[in-house]
UniProtKB/TrEMBL annotation:
SMART domains, alphabetized: Resolvase
Stretches of the chain forming a coiled coil according to its record: 415-442
Chain ranges of the Resolvase/invertase-type recombinase catalytic domain: 3-152
CDD domains: Ser_Recombinase
Signal peptide stretch: none
Repeat listed as a keyword: no
The protein, known as: Recombinase family protein
InterPro entries, sorted: DNA_bind_recomb_sf, DNA_bind_recombinase_dom, Resolv_N, Resolvase-like_N_sf, SSR_resolvase, Zn_ribbon_recom_dom
Protein keywords: Coiled coil
Ranges for domain Recombinase: 151-287
Length: 543
C-alpha cells in the first residue's frame, strides 16, 4: 500500500469547525477504497485559499513531501489546496518533482490539464464569491445597517448584525470637535486640548490633526465621516491582496461608486454645525489650492526646536503686529516640553548680530579652507572604505533574506522554519543601515585655484555688506534673505530658564568652493552672544 497524506481546509471562522473533520473522514474512506495507507493528516482552519501565506498546515505538508514521507496527497477537491491558479500550479509542480501524486476524492488523480482547469474554476469561484459578498454588503446598506468597521462614537448592537447605537461619551467628544472646528479652531489645537485632558483617541495613543482632518479622497477622518450627520456611506475603498506578501491593502474607489443611505437615528452632529464645518473646510481647501506661496522670511523653514528637534512655526502676532514663534510639536500634539513663545524678530536680530561678528575678517577663511581640504583628503579614504564595507554587508544580508523568501514561496522550506531567520536578517540589515545613516558623507577634496579662492572671499565680503545694509530694513530684505539662506542650514533655538531668554545655534552650509554639506556651529545668547569654537568657519578638528 502506498503511503498517503490527507490535507483539509476551510475558509472562514464562520464555518463549522467540523468541516475539516468531515473532509478528513471522506478522504480516509477514499484511501481505504484505493488501498492507500494514510500516514499523516494536515489541516488549515479559517484560512483563505487565495494565498499560501499563513497556512501552516500546507507548509507542513510541503515539508513532509520534501522528506519523502508519502507518495500520494489526498484532498476532497483541488480547491482545498488553493483557489489561485498560480499557487495551485506551483504546488502541483513541486509535488510532481518529488514524485508525489495529488488525488482528489471527486476528480481522481490530478494531471496538468485538470490542475489548469480546476485552478481557473477555483479562482473564478473565489472572485465571484467576493462579488456576491459585496452585493450582500450593498443590501445591508439599503436596509439602513452599517457594513463597515467600528466608527468612533458608535458601538454594535449585540445580536443585531450591522446595527449601531450611539456611545454618548464619545458622541460628546465628536460634537465638541465639530463645534470647535466650525468656530475656526485649527485641528492641531483641538488635538492638543484632547491630549492634555487624556481623552482616548479612536486609534493609537494620541490625537493628531490628521485624526480630525482625515483624507478627502478616501473620505476618512472625523470631519469627513458622514455617519455623524446621519448618513451611512459605503464602498469608499476596496481591498486588494499583495501577491508577494499576502497582506491586504486598501485602494480608494472613485466617488461615483460610493453608496449611501440616510440613517437619522444615528445622527450625532446638528445639521447647521455640520454644514458650517464643511463650508469652512471647503473654503480652506479652495484657498490652499489658489493662493500663491508667500516669499519666505529670513528664517522660514530654518528654525528648529532645541528640545525635540521639530520645526518652529508662527504662533501668532501681538497687538503691535510682531510675529511670535513656537515649537510645532507643541502646536500639533502637545508632545514637546518647550512651551516658550518667542518673538521672531528677536531671533533674527540675534542671528544677524552674530553673523556680523563672524564675518569681520574673511581673510582667515583662506587658511581655514586649506586646512579643511587637507583634512578632507585624509577623511575621504577612511569614510569611503567604511561605507563600502557596510554597503557590501547590507547587500549580502538582503540577498540572503530575499533567497529565504523565495524558498518559502517555492515551498523549498517551510514558512515556520524561515520566519525566524528572515526576521533576524531584517533586524541585522536595519542595524547595518543605521550604521550607514550615522556615517557622514565622505568628503570630496577640493582644488584651491587662486581665482576661485578670490571669488569665495568676495562672496563672504558681499554677505557681510548685505547684512550691514539690510539687517534693520523692514521691507526690502530680498538680497539679505537670498544671501543668508544660501549659507545657513538651520537655526536651533534653545530655551533657557524662566525669564532668562534663549540661546541660538546657527548651523550653516559651506560655500560652493568648500563643497561641504554642513559647516560650523555658532552659539548666540539672547543676553549677549557667544561663539563656539572658532565661529562661522571652524578649524579642521571641528569638521
Amino acid at each position: 500500500m502506498k503511503p498517503a497524506a490527507i490535507y483539509a481546509r476551510f475558509s472562514t471562522e464562520l464555518q463549522n469547525e467540523k468541516s475539516t473533520d468531515d473532509q478528513i473522514a471522506l478522504c480516509r474512506a477514499y484511501a481505504a477504497r484505493h488501498q492507500l495507507d494514510v500516514v499523516a493528516t494536515f489541516e488549515d482552519k479559517a484560512r483563505s485559499g487565495a494565498s499560501v501565506f499563513g497556512r501552516d498546515g500546507l507548509m507542513q505538508l510541503m515539508d513532509a513531501a520534501r522528506q519523502h514521507r508519502f507518495k500520494v496527497v489526498i484532498v476532497e477537491a483541488l480547491d482545498r489546496l488553493s483557489r489561485d491558479m498560480e499557487d495551485l500550479a506551483g504546488i502541483h509542480k513541486r509535488l510532481s518533482f518529488q514524485g508525489i501524486e495529488i488525488q482528489a476524492v471527486h476528480d481522481g488523480t490530478a494531471d496538468s490539464i485538470l490542475i489548469g482547469i480546476r485552478g481557473l474554476v477555483g479562482q473564478m469561484q473565489r472572485e465571484d464569491g467576493a462579488k456576491k459578498v459585496r452585493r450582500g454588503m450593498a443590501g445591508v446598506i439599503r436596509d439602513g445597517r452599517h457594513a463597515g468597521g467600528r466608527a468612533y462614537g458608535y458601538r454594535t448592537v449585540p445580536g443585531k448584525p450591522g446595527e449601531l447605537e450611539i456611545v454618548e461619551g464619545e458622541a460628546t467628544i465628536v460634537r465638541r470637535i465639530f463645534t470647535a472646528y466650525a468656530a475656526g479652531r485649527a485641528p492641531r489645537e483641538i488635538a492638543q486640548d484632547l491630549n492634555r485632558e487624556n481623552i482616548h483617541p479612536p486609534r493609537g495613543r494620541r490625537w493628531n490633526a490628521s485624526t480630525i482632518n482625515g483624507n478627502a479622497k478616501r473620505g476618512t477622518g472625523l470631519i469627513f465621516n458622514e455617519l455623524y450627520a446621519g448618513r451611512i456611506v459605503w464602498n469608499k475603498v476596496r481591498m486588494v491582496k499583495d501577491p508577494d506578501t499576502g497582506k491586504r491593502l486598501s485602494r480608494p474607489n472613485p466617488r461615483e461608486e460610493w453608496q449611501s443611505i440616510d440613517v437619522p437615528q444615528l445622527r450625532i452632529v446638528e445639521q447647521s454645525v455640520w454644514e458650517q464645518a464643511h463650508a469652512l473646510k471647503t473654503e480652506k481647501g479652495h484657498l490652499a489650492s489658489h493662493m500663491k506661496r508667500r516669499a519666505p522670511h529670513l528664517l522660514s523653514g530654518l528654525l528648529r526646536c532645541g528640545c525635540c528637534g521639530s520645526g518652529m512655526s508662527v504662533h501668532d502676532r501681538d497687538k503691535t503686529g510682531k510675529t511670535r514663534i513656537r515649537c510645532s510639536a507643541v502646536r500639533e500634539s502637545g508632545s514637546c516640553s518647550n512651551r516658550r513663545i518667542i518673538y521672531l524678530r528677536d531671533v533674527e536680530r540675534l542671528v544677524l548680530s552674530g553673523m556680523v561678528e563672524e564675518l569681520k575678517d574673511p581673510r582667515l577663511i583662506e587658511t581655514y579652507v586649506r586646512n579643511y581640504n587637507s583634512e578632507r583628503e585624509r577623511l575621504a579614504g577612511n569614510a569611503s572604505a567604511e561605507r563600502l564595507r557596510l554597503e557590501a554587508k547590507r547587500d549580502r544580508i538582503e540577498g540572503e533574506r530575499q533567497r529565504n523568501i523565495d524558498l518559502v514561496i517555492k515551498y523549498v522550506i517551510s514558512e515556520e522554519d524561515a520566519k525566524q531567520r528572515i526576521a533576524e536578517l531584517k533586524q541585522e540589515r536595519l542595524r547595518v543601515e543605521a550604521e550607514l545613516a550615522a556615517l557622514e558623507e565622505a568628503p570630496t577634496p577640493i582644488s584651491l585655484h587662486p581665482a576661485t579662492l578670490d571669488r569665495y572671499i568676495e562672496t563672504v565680503n558681499a554677505l557681510a555688506d548685505t547684512i550691514a545694509s539690510h539687517a534693520s530694513a523692514e521691507d526690502d530684505r530680498g538680497p539679505l534673505v537670498s544671501d543668508f539662506r544660501a549659507l545657513v542650514h538651520s537655526v536651533i533655538v534653545h530655551p533657557k530658564g524662566p525669564w532668562e531668554g534663549f540661546e541660538i545655534e546657527v548651523k550653516g552650509k559651506l560655500a560652493a568652493l568648500v563643497g561641504g554639506r554642513v559647516f560650523p556651529e555658532a552659539h548666540h545668547n539672547s543676553g549677549g552672544y557667544m561663539v563656539a569654537g572658532e565661529g562661522l568657519e571652524p578649524p579642521t578638528p571641528g569638521l
